[in-house]
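Input record (one chain):
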Amino acid sequence: MTSREIDNIIDLALAEDVSHGDLTSEALIPPGLQGRASILARASGVLAGIEVSKRVFFKVDPSLEFGGLIKDGARVKPGDTVATISGEAVSILKGERVALNFLSRLSGIATDTARFVAEVERFRVKISDTRKTTPGLRRLEKYAVSLGGGQNHRLHLGDGVLIKDNHLTVLRALGMSLKQLVLKAKQNAPQDQTVEVEVGTAEDALEAAEAGADIIMLDNIAPDEMHRIRGLIPGHIKIEASGGITLKNVRAAAQAGVDIISIGALTHSAKALDFSLEFEARTIDN
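The corresponding structure, as predicted from the sequence alone:
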């Protein structure tokens, strides 16, 4: 992810929060008042977004000094100081909420991903995200997934061929079979492009395999049936499990012998990790 892409996301967030100023801070705090604040973890988890938070403060005021004490991908626990910021107090207050929003959101995603990864660490399976991301934040959220030990599925619609249920519905209405769809995709897609097919039955999985699909996604299929299908599909074809995967059943999916487990909840339902920003009273100085 480029610096420009990150800056564009930050600019939108800051425009949302401080484009009309900070009436409270500007009305109460004397101009030029200097101070030092710390960002503290309030829960245990995996840190993600510390560099994004740093860029938020520099966008607000380039003269601020930001000291990152813990790197992205590291574990944090309640009370850990992850960063310090010093400079004009009003500037720190203006950047506080946006910086913490990014840090909390991304760390929550990294932490949830790490929990899923830990559940299946004994198996040769990859935990993957999906495109069920917050609009505008996809690249950052997928970055957080990678920090938690997960892998990224498609970044966008141009990042791979995935024949889903609605593609099947539309084209079957025109008289095309699943096998014909797969063959058409392999013929028309860029050379060496992986073709993945979402199926809901063993029969469709076999048809997709016979047509030459590279990956077969088993959508909302019970682990026992996943295991049976895995035994029917040639080993060189990867099997992906998707739909309804939780921490309670992810290990069962891994035991079924699938290669990939994709989980939309990594990004669309992650609980934010709690952080706070606190000023050090002894550092306040005109």
